[in-house]
Amino acid sequence: MEGLITKTCKLVGLAGAVLALSLMAGCSQAPDPAQRAINAANRADQAASRAEAASQKAQQASASAQAAASRVEQAASDAKAAADRAEAIAAKSMASAPRGGRRARRHRRPAAEAAPAPSDSGAPAAAPSP
After folding, report:
1. Quick check: 118 and 127 in contact, CB under 8 A?
2. pLDDT averaged over the chain?
3. Computed from CA positions of residues 54, 60, 65, 66, in that sequence, does the dihedral angle turn out positive or negative?
4. Using H for helix, E for strand and C for coil, what is the string for 60-73?
């Protein structure tokens, strides 16, 4: 029986040692405070790089928008100048147009004259309606 107890004690001791080693290995996997600080600094540096890239893209978009606004303003100015020229041409052509010239007056013919001539078929001509 002593052999059985000795083997059991050795087995329990070995299992305890394995458990203790695994706990120590698990705890040693965590980085120390210096390593965590380095990792945080690296992440902050990456975030700063992304922010700088976003800032450059925003500046490019702003410059593009300003250029587009300038083009729109120039087009509006050109359109106003064209409208002013068209108005001046219209005013000039209206000033040179004849005013109150003679117009031919059309007189209406009486209804009797407007009726068609009777045909030779023998049928009476339709009377014009008043």
Report:
1. no
2. 78
3. positive
4. HHHHHHHHHHHHHH
Could you please report the per-residue DSSP string of the chain?
-HHHHHHHHHHHHHHHHHHHHHHHHHHHHSPPHHHHHHHHHHHHHHHHHHHHHHHHHHHHHHHHHHHHHHHHHHHHHHHHHHHHHHHHHHHHHHHHS--S---PPPPPPPHHHHSPPPPTTSPPPPPPP-
Q: Higher model confidence: residue 117 or residue 31?
A: 31
pLDDT band at 94 (very low <50, low <70, confident <90, very high): confident
Integer Cα distance of 45 and 13 in angstroms: 49
Rounded Cα gap, residues 8 and 14, in angstroms: 10
The answer to whether residues 122 and 109 touch, using CB atoms and an 8 Å cutoff, is no
Distance CA 32, CA 39 (A): 11
Question: Considering the chain, what percentage of its residues have pLDDT values greater than 70?
Answer: 50
Asked if the model's pLDDT at residue 124 lies above 90, the reply is no
Enter the pTM of the model. 0.42
